[in-house]
Amino acid sequence: MTDLAAPIAAAVPAGRKLAETGQWALIFRRFRRHRLAYASAFVVLGIYLVALFAEFVAPFSANTYNARYTYGPPQPLQFFGRDAGGELRFMYVNGYKMSFDPVALKRSFVVDQNSVNPVVFFARGEPYHLFGLIPWDRHLIGPADPSQPMYLWGADRLGRDVLSRTIHGARISMSIGLVGVAISLFLGLLLGGMSGYYGGWIDEVVQRSIDFLKSIPTIPLWMGLAAAVPANMDPLLVYLWITIILSLIGWTDLARVVRGRFLSLRTEDFVLAARLDGCSKQRVIWRHMVPSFTSHIVASVTLAIPSMILAETALSFLGIGLKDPVVSWGVLLKDAQSILALTTAPWLLAPGAAVVVAVLALNFLGDGIRDAADPYA
Amino acid sequence: MRPIPMLERMSALPVTAVAQPEPLVTVRDLKVQIGTDDGLVRAVDGVTFDVPRGRTLCLVGESGSGKSITGRALMNLLPPSGRIAAGRITYTDRAGEAIDIGALDPRGRQIRGLRGKDISLISQEPMAALSPVHTIGQQLVPVIRRHLGLSRREAEARAVEMLGRVGIPKPAERLGNYPFEFSGGMRQRVCIALALSCQPRLLIADEPTTALDVTTQANIIDLLQELQREYGLSILFITHDLGVVAEIADDVAVMYLGRIVERGTVDEIFADPRHPYTQALLKSVPRLGAGRHTRLAAIRGMVPSPFDRPAGCDFRPRCDLAIKGLCEIEDPGTITLGPRRDVRCVLQRTPSTDSVVTERSTSHA
Amino acid sequence: MLRYVLRRLVYTFATLAAVSVVAFLVIQLPPGDFLTSFSAKFAEQGGALDSDALTALKLRYGLDQPWYVQYWLWISGILFRGDFGESFEWNKPVSELMWDRFGMTVLLSGITLIVTWIVALPIGIYSAVRRYSWLDYVVTFLGFLGLAVPSFLLALALMYVFSRYFGMSVSGLFSPAYVNAEWSLAKVGDLAMHLWLPVFVLATHGTAALIRVMRANLIDELYKPYVQTARANGLGEMELLFKYPVRVALNPFISTIGWVLPNLVSGAIVTSVVMSLPTAGPLLLSALLAQDMYLAGSFILMLSALTVIGTLISDLLLAWLDPRVRYA
Ligand SMILES: Nc1ncnc2c1ncn2[C@@H]1O[C@H](COP(=O)(O)OP(=O)(O)OP(=O)(O)O)[C@@H](O)[C@H]1O
Ligand code: SF4
Ligand SMILES: [Mg+2]
């Protein structure tokens, strides 16, 4: 229309401000305003750090077991108290007293207020190789006397420490999200980009495939595909297979976003405004298009990770994803599958808390990034 | 091709004595504030004007100058975060009683009884102004029934009559159509029919032709003028387009950054613009042979953001005639030149007018 | 309208065909053909399959033929005779095993879908209209939580709570007395008594998602010019809200069936395994674990068909409600 010039004149003061502060800084500033998302960023970072340093953070290795403590209940960390001798103690756990019911053939644990197992930071414990390279034997937290039990989140059927296993499980569960999303992103960028860039029949084919993949229920399909993964395969290969299977459907959302961005970027008002404002084409691309594009992708990727994590958890829980020697949150939760196990040891659900926290934090984070990237959407 | 009438009446300044009818709406020192994430916007910052009975007042100005907000304030229909912060909007109703629109509860029964019945609105976007999933009958009939208390059948008859009146062919059949089945121009006609269906006394037309093509624009303007003659309608017409102003306006108010910088009759404004902004606007209009779609954007510089208003005169950063040492310090205030004529510019301060300057505070938060 | 319906129907059939190919591929996926595993299983049980029987089976499934012939034999059996093949695990035709379970899945998903809508709609509307009110914050947070808790985890937690604190076993859909009983009013009542917990578990995720969708849609609509028009014509806020923006926002809401239903069916599988519900889930899982591929493939086919058809229904509903779709 002939009056086009007027609205642009209004857009420009804002546009100029944008260019001055820079798109990235602006996005970051808007992001910081989302308190919850900002806090979640640190939670997510923390979880990934824990996963990275799992051997150090966890008091024990994932497979350390002690049959004496089968289904030992959680020993909550105490901060102040007196031991049997009446001496004041800092940071300790109470020991167990065991009683055996000969009729029900059941062992039961009673917390023994009198036995005190001191707990220390940087405890000497089982030796391990950090990142598989650096040999060390210190653990962030652990019993001062390594022979004493310290099951902060309780023990499982084999007397393994649920907390340690959850920490080690973070490595697989959180990375499967990353790897899966990386594969999805590759497929999404490739197919979505082609779809948006070429249009025409390519677009049509890609769009129809996406529609198709979205209309079938994912779990049965994943189950079907995962069941075909041979049982005796190397765990690492199984891991890879499962991620690929999950990505086979995960790419669709990312492809949609990429395509949509491609289409809209070409016509977006601010690009036009920036052009009229006298920016060169290069400048328009680097200062305006790339930040807007990438921040959207980052948001979608962040939001895709939790669904990967949930999918892995569900498949492993059913026993057709990752399997026992491998430790992931889904594998751990499989132990809690029967109501019998659950009533004896409800703490087996604890890895579920890790899943919920990780997924929540990632969702908040992704939401915050998306809002910051696109406050008007 | 409608060149702006150039009137050789430069010297024929208003001979005040012509009796003016009571205005339908008087607006005095209206201020509207809107809360945004970035702070409080003073979208309208002290405007004063009258809408004369049976005549058209045009509100002109660049985008963001507060025209729409002013128009909406007359119906007390502001965005949720907006409020009338000061001033009086007095509407004289059919019984002759004065109502302070700004003092009414914006969701209350009384103002709702006025909206659509006494005061109507046609908006800028005919494409989006009607619900996409209701037929136009479903949108017209309930409004007529509500305000005129008619039966369904009578209301339908009235809707058909109105649609016919605004020039929609086969109106009875089109009542069952959805908005997307109409072209842009026809849709705007539907909006006009909706706005006029209850015989309002004031029509607020917020850029009713901006989104339309040239011929359609002309048709709509003609239609509005015709309806005005027929119903004795008062119109507050908001536009960017000086060509349209020349054609439809009786009075003109030029807005800049939430204030009216110049006000006068259409002849005065076109023949004898006093404010540098008005002069620049008119200069940017090609005189002869140009289409009536003329832009306002040819003035140098940008509209400042409402958050950093310049000190002194709002227009100073863009003004060619600015006086150093005066304009950036002192708010020019409103200089009254006649009963329907005033200007906000220091250049108009003559010894004779100095006495009527309404001093205004020079500080802006 | 007719053209739209026809187009949707054609598209649905194409999707169903593609789904059937995928299901068939899943059947074919496990290494080795199933006859080998079948005879192995038979041998395990102490019998040996004579060669006549083997040839008969080979002929029936066209095992010597290229895959598309096998596919055709399989799909035509389903289409024309309702023959889904044989379950080797159960030694029964798949169709005998499947329909009851599948019916329960349809019932469970359907009820959950309805509950999801009934709950999500008003909350979503409230959240949008009273944006940034404390209730909106609570709802938004619960929504995030609902999306973050896997349904099986919720089921496990609830089962634990019920058995630990109320001494109730909440698994299954029937009390022991009714499991094998004929259908009767009492059995339906018993089902209703058991159904609410699985429905609650399954509805959580979808409700959380739909509240967010409804809230976002409605917020989009609330500031559209047509709402202003309605206001400018003197409509009251409540009246206006339900007549215009809610009505418009409802349309994308309805089209969410397209993705809620697949998610629901997926969630129902895992939850059913946990809660031992007699739906498709547990049987599908055990079939997959035992590589009883005809049974598994048939479930995958039927569950996918369920969502595809559900999507078709939502599309048609949408066309009926939204003139823009209808006339497009
Ligand atoms: N809903 C809103 N929320 C916040 N600020 C608003 C809103 N509507 C208008 N404003 C602000 O109020 C000021 C005046 O806006 P208004 O819509 O009245 O301008 P206008 O003169 O009608 O412009 P246009 O010609 O573009 O329609 C602008 O600075 C704008 O940023
Ligand atoms: S007051 Fe000064 S700056 Fe403002 S319009 Fe008049 S001359 Fe220009
Ligand atoms: Mg406007």
What distinguishing features does this structure have?
heterotrimer, A: 377 residues, alpha+beta, MetI-like fold, 2 domains, four-stranded antiparallel beta sheet, 4 strands, 60% helix, C: 328 residues, mainly alpha, two-stranded antiparallel sheet, 15 helices, 78% helix, globular, binds adenosine-5'-triphosphate, binds iron/sulfur cluster, binds magnesium ion
Judging by the overall fold, what is the CATH architecture of the largest domain in chain A? Orthogonal Bundle
Strand content of chain A: 5-15%
Instruction: Please count the beta strands of chain A (DSSP E, at least 2 residues each).
Output: 4
How many β-strands of chain B, per DSSP?
12
Largest interface: A-C, 39 and 51 residues
CATH class of the largest domain in chain A: Mainly Alpha
Largest sheet of chain B: 8 strands, mixed
Please provide the ordered H/E string of secondary-structure elements of chain B.
EEEHEEHEHHHHEHEHEEHHEEH
Radius of gyration of chain B: 21 Å
Termini distance of chain B?
Answer: 46 Å
Indicate the mean pLDDT of chain A: 78
Unreliably modeled segments of chain A:
1-20
- Helix count of chain A equals 13
Distance between the termini of chain A: 25 Å
Please state the CA-atom Rg of chain A, rounded to the nearest Å. 26 Å
Largest beta-sheet details of chain A: 4 strands, antiparallel
- Mean pLDDT of chain B comes to 84
Q: Flag low-confidence runs of chain B.
A: 1-18, 288-297, 353-365
CATH superfamily of the largest domain in chain A: MetI-like
Percent of residues of chain B in beta strands? Answer: 15-25%
What portion of residues of chain B is helical?
25-40%
